[in-house]
Write the structure tokens for this entry.
Amino acid sequence: EPESLIEGLNVITQRANNLTEFVNSYKKIARLPAPQKQKTSIIALLDKVTPLFQKHKIIIESQQDHLLDIDPVQIEQVLINLLKNAIEANQEAKSESGIAINWQVTHNAFSLTIADNGIGISNLDNLFVPFYTTKKQGSGIGLVLCRQILEVHNGQLTLTNKPDNSGCLAIIELPL
């Protein structure tokens, strides 16, 4: 049957594309370039990233700018991944609330929080398992890549459910 042959070829094509995507994703994780650090304004960085999500309500709560010694391209990627996740979480929960971004500076650390109003994380254990995903189109490397980028900056990424209501907090910590 010509139809079943075409169907079979479509399945094979789709698998090949998925495999290519998988391999490219894996390459991103396997060889992260050393960060090219430069003094970067957190507000300037957010001003570059937030327009990518202009259909969504992103509320920047902190006003005090801060200069970070980071690789702006890598940290931009972290912010994009985390904002994308937060927006998807809100959409899944049909939440009309926006995404809140705020930060604070202590004597030796910079901490930025991205808060959504989604349903929260059901399985915190699998968050950083490479290629584990709960999303239909997900590759399962977004959070792994974010964590790796922050680790090469001697920082860390923490994801927790909000203690008081539904939603998730993604916390980026970087040393000063």
In short: The chain has a mean pLDDT of 85. The radius of gyration is 18 Å. The longest strand covers residues 168-175.
